[in-house]
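WARN retry 2 of 3 for item q-0093 after timeout on previous attempt; input resubmitted unchanged.
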Amino acid sequence: MPSLSATKPALPDLTLLTGLATPLWLVRAEDGGVVWLNRAARKLLAPDAAGGTLRMTPAGPAPTAATERSVTVRGAGGEALALTVRIGPVPGCDLVLVEAPGDHAARQEVARLNEQLVALSYAYPDLRFELRRDGRILDFAAGSPADLGIPAQRFLNGHIQEVLPEAAAPLVEALERVAAGALTANPTVKVDIRLPVNGATGGESGAEGDAVFEARLVALSDDGDRILCILRNITGRARAEQRAERAHRLLLDAIDSIGEGFVLYDADDRLVLFNRRYRDLKISNPDLAQPGTPFESLLRDGMRRGLYRIPPERAEEWMARRLALHRHGGPPMEVQLADGRWLRIEERRTCDGGTVGLRTDITDLKAHALELAAANRRKSDYVNHLSHELRTPLTAVMGFAEILRDQLLGPPGSPRYGEAAAQIVAAGDYMLELINNLLDLARIEAGRLELHEEECPPALIVDATLAMMAARAERCGVALSARLPADLPVLWGDPSLVRQMLTNLVGNALKFTDPGGHVTVSAERDAAGGLILAVSDDGRGMPPERIPQALTAFAQIHDPTRDPMTAAEHGSGLGLPLTAALVELHGGGIAVDSAPGRGTTVRLCFPPERVMR
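OK item q-0093 returned
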């Protein structure tokens, strides 16, 4: 190292100061000559030290206390380095200890990088502001000034609060944060702002007419008084994100609106989401059914709470089947819950290894299936009954026909042949009635029975019905009568079907009324203005709980094998169901009131619109 001074004063022990990172050197107070430097000072002052003797100006008397001073260190070649240093006296000698800021080199590097950042900012389409901490604009550059829709001259000698009032609040707050953090490890702040463009106002961020900017602010000076603000137009990205979020919400709403319970598990078999219907089914503990819960934990919790109606001895087998369906997929699985509900469970694997599941409440379908099974059993029973009903008159027809053919009762003039022919006619009439009832019911169920409507005077129809059923009533030993008011209105309907309804009801009443009983046909107006035709008897009646069965096709209320009182009676079991269907075809309804030993009353209720005033 070249000589630092012509005469070297006696120096104190400087061993501990040599390795410090803070640049230190000793200077003679009278002329500013540098007599000693530590390694950090040599590195800082190396360009000047290379030229020869170092001197620091201004020189002067040794200070009595440590103080800061702006000085210039000059080398022998005249090179100068301006520094702000801290100087203080050295006890016991006429020397001054000079201390340069320890991070001077680092601060110079930061300043250099900031200058490069400012230079680079001009090469990009972002909007760049250089600001004071109070918001005053020192400089402005814009690759695309039309993005803001503001004349460039408004940025000169202005404040950011005046130029961009809509974004003033978030920007001023960001400026304060940057200024406060300039001397810390995080001098950069990012904030999103919305700016109305071309006179547009208000609205949601990224809405049509608005622009969304990402603002990045960084301190350019140590004290945070010079701040670089870069605005990047991210309107397209913001709108794309909004569209994606809107589509995501729409998808979630759609999933939430479907009628089946929807549930999704990720590839690690942990719950991701479920919809409202799944929650309403109450098949999972709400405290446990949270995102992140494993499926097996939910399943075992349900088993522990007795959610499923499964015999204890089959619990493990059912659990294994259920886990296999969940993990590998397969045909739908039906399970009954403890409260009687039935669930249909379908699960499929997703392409990323997750599982999507549907839960459908099929309780009503199960009940309907049971009803269909019961109806099929009733039809099977009815087929057996119908075969008996057809076989009996058909056997009589064939037997009496053979008697007539073979003249088994004597010469052709015998009066007994007339009785045989009458039996054939009666059996044929019954078979024809049975077949007609079957065909009528089939046409009604198929919607092919048409009404031929005209005026129907109830008194005439009742008289015709009683006249036709008088002989049968006499054979049964039952009195048949009518009770009709004189001012009865005319009914608008199909006369033949109205008479058929009354005939069916009177026939049923005669069948289940003992000799000496009484059957009455009556009519009245109801409170709504409709017309009621009623058939009442004082016969055997039936329990009220069996009335729905009596109104069901192919059902038999009185079983001849169990009820000896009806063993001699025959019937198809179609009278009441067919009558109910015919009155419903007229827009009305049927009501049955009955009890064992108290008889039965059946009312045909026609609506007011079928009553002619």
